[in-house]
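Chain A, query sequence.
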Amino acid sequence: MKRLVLIVALLVAHGQLAFGNVAIVTNATGGGTAEDSVTVAFVVTDSIGNIAEADSFYIALFGPTGDSVFGAAYDPAASEISSMLVGGRLFYRWTQAVADIDGTGRRGSYAGVIVAVDTLDGSGGEYLDAVVGLSFVLAPSLAERSLIGDTINREASTLTSSDRVGLDLDNVTGTLDNTEIGAGAIANTQLADGAISASKLQDYTINAYKIAGNAITAMKIAEDAVAEIWSFDTSNVSNGMGAMLKDTSAYQGSAAALDSAGIAGWVWNTPHNNHALAGTFGRNLDAPITSLSTGGGAQSLRVVCYDSTLNVVIPYAGVTIHNVSQTALLGVGRTSAEGDVVFGLDAESCVVSAFVSGYSFNSGDTVALSDTEIDTVFGYWFDPGSPALPNLCRVYGHIYGVDGAPLSGLTVTASLPKGTVQSGAMVVSPTMVTTVSDSTGYFYLDVIPSVSLVPSDSKYELTITQSGSTIFRRRTLVPNLTSWRLDWSE
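Chain A, predicted structure.
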């Protein structure tokens, strides 16, 4: 773990002042945490010292060797920039992950500048630049620092009690007794595997009084020890629990004669009249179905999802059943590999809807139920269209709720979290692009494929937010394709 040293910065620009300081954070070389970031808090003032509002921000950072390691431009709405109004005064902060600034980081001092721009009336060319200087230090961890050496340069055998400088334990003679070992001095973390073997333990050294409660748990017993118990030869066992376990009829009772063939025959040969009770599983088995049903109602409804373009069934599609007014959810299921699912319902009529990413379906079917009904829901493969420019990739997807209904109005954004990159001769701003899902839950964003960026492993950060709260966030590469359905399985 590396620690960033707090350094307060104050610089004066011509005509405008800015005050800022850098927060103390940590930087982990692996498995980073939420604290692994640099935070700079600052304010901006106008030419007469009043705290002002900035229109844009520019960041430049240089590493310990003087090379440039990070640069970015932001508007006030960027996620890296935040503001807070206190007592009529506007306070800003900029935050960036250290890993996104310089990978795992390098030991030494980092220096940087934040330029906050105020365009004054917003229409003319006049503006004021406020400059905030900042620096922080990535210090080496304790493990990386040089170990303290032998500063005495004397043999341990020449030391006396008055020296009080420690002893070389390899040269200590004599033995340790119980008066020199305090209670709890040797715990399991001080003993290496195999430090005490069975040959070093005298008979009766460890008895019931030396084993504390919960000292031996399932986690302390090796798998081969358990296997040894279960493979123990019981041919010589004639008494106790071991003898009872050998005699299977002793605990099976009247079920001792049952086998799998007998049980299967009893289930499948049960008379038809035993299945007459509506809503039972046996009753549903008497209906002509090809997959298991969902629900416990008296009316059986088989729903088939069918691709009207390719003339094939659609497997593993989500299906929802609502009442006619669509104010209540009556059932939720998923089609089998054969493209169908069966519901048991207690209703005279219902509305059937289907959904699966990559397909579009007709609006919900209203079905009047009799004793047994089959409803086919038709869908067709979804075409997201082509991006606005030929060198872009259309990233698209569908968003649904847990009830299977599409979610509209959710905000979907894409940004480059590592800051400004290149694409050929172009400079690509990290400013996020945004869209919202429509009434079918569909959304798309046209972005530059990752392979066309410099560096080519630049990942986009894709987020989905609802009512201002982030419900999903993932960093991913965008492939070099005309269109790509968003895949969260990476």
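The chain has six helices and 30 strands. The helical segments are 98-102, 223-230, 240-246, 249-252, 260-268, 281-285.
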